[in-house]
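Hey everyone, long-time lurker, first post.

I ran two proteins through the pipeline my lab uses and got sequence/structure pairs for each. Pasting them in order. The first:
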Amino acid sequence: MSVIASGYSTDGDLWHLDAAVNRDTGDLATSVAIELPDGSRPWGGGCGGPPIPPGRHISTYSGAADFGPRTFIARVTADVRALIITLSDGTREDVQLHGDISEFGARIGVLVYPRHLDIHRLDLIGTNGEMLPPD
């Protein structure tokens, strides 16, 4: 697996998004590793399998360790231009999409957010600016 993106959460947690394609099966493995500001590393999370199930625009993973933030990974099709997540406190996050669709079979977004919050809404915006169904 190789790191395709890195960043910081609003609480200062450093995260790394890893992705790899199994050349034999075409399956995509994605995972997020997190380091907290104090240097501790909660269990990371991720998912594997087809990049996106047929007939869908998005495939998602969410999880959390016993401590630290929650993690959300989204894999989206080429016709998704933007992914906007609304959290339970009303915060809207425009999730950056990473990776080359021709390499991974999807573009990949990640959100690392405080564990006391929940995801309340996902909005997918298509290449023509239209809202896409979340499937």
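...and the second, right after it:
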Amino acid sequence: MGIFDKLQELGKLVEGVNEVADEVGRSTVVDYGEPVYSLYTALKLGNLHRQIDITDEEGNVKYYTKSSIIAIKGKTDIMDTDGNVIAHLEKKPISLHEIHFITMADGRQFTLSNELFHIVNDITNIEELGWQIRGNIVGLSFNLLDGNEAPIATIGKKMISIHDKYCIDLYQPQYEQEVVAIVIQLEKMIEDRNDNEESSGFSFGFGD
């Protein structure tokens, strides 16, 4: 397959995933109404530690990440503006898959698996919390629901974005830090996938 054929394939893939993302956004407005408030996240391109900032609607930083220099360790802390760690992220290879651990400051731990990337529009359980992710996980456009199927948050992003910005609409603000940790860990998983694709000689351009 030539490069032109690959580009055509990429265009079809992006178009299809964007349609899914748009549909998630439309159903969110209809079904859930307006969120309590929104947060935003953007990867700092070219940053050695791949720092990610979480900002409020006015652009003020609320949280930021600190990652290990050696990417294979996969360790990241999410900090608040006072320098307190609110969550620790880590990945470990288990069998043929990587399990990504999230540990909150109070010791609660839950996991995400890279098997998430086998789906585009499906339901994924976060068993430790009793939550579900529904939507386009690869594009970080999905709804996060609690055990009663009530919205906790919705996350949206265009598949191809120079600034890699995501919008996090919060419906249950008491879970703000858990939601931030989940979104950042998913973003880290997409970065890892993108790095692996680049090392294999062809990238679809997900992440940075």
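Reply from user beta_strand_b:
Welcome! Quick read of the second one: The chain has two helices and twelve strands. Helices lie at 3-32, 176-199.
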